[in-house]
Amino acid sequence: MELIRVPAPPKAAFNMQRPMSDLIKAQIKHLKHVEHGLPQTLRETLPRHPIVTENDAAIYIASMTTLLRSRADTPKRMPKQSKPGSQPIPIAPSGRLALVAAAGQTSKKDSPKGGPSRTTRKSSSRKNTATSSKRKK
User: CA-based angle 35:36:37, to the nearest 5?
Assistant: First the structure.
């Protein structure tokens, strides 16, 4: 396989004072949501500064990432136990889907207002075929 060389971004591309993009704003919004679920003692360890520039966002994202990664070794919460006897009954799939349709039944939505229903159309088409076979004879 041929090696593809990717050039490094120019030094002018790095601007710590650039306003945040919409993507970074969305990431900050998600991290703030996670932050509100943390205990107060952990929230106090996070930086408290206005997040306006990409540099401000980088500092906040780095601190949140470090905090969340350090908590990865903590045991997971056990799911809540439901009351005895209120367990859902599993339904085994049958493997086949049987469809049943009633012949000749239509809903009011199917027929236009004032027009013939589907059953009327079928019966009128039968009359036409009967009369056309009589004409041929």
Answer: 90
End-to-end CA distance of the chain: give it in Å, rounded: 79
Residue in the structure block whose two tokens are 């703030």: 32
How far CA 126 is from CA of 79, 82, 103, 120, 122, in Å, comes to 64, 61, 16, 10, 6
Helix (H, G, I), strand (E, B) or coil at 19: strand
For the record, the structure tokens of 21 come out as 């993009």
Integer Cα distance of 51 and 46 in angstroms: 13
Contact 35, 64 (CB under 8 A): yes
Amino acid at the residue 82: S
Pick the more confident residue, 10 or 104: 10
Task: Summarize pLDDT for 27-70 with one digit per residue, the tens.
Answer: 999 999 999 999 998 888 898 889 999 999 999 999 999 999 88
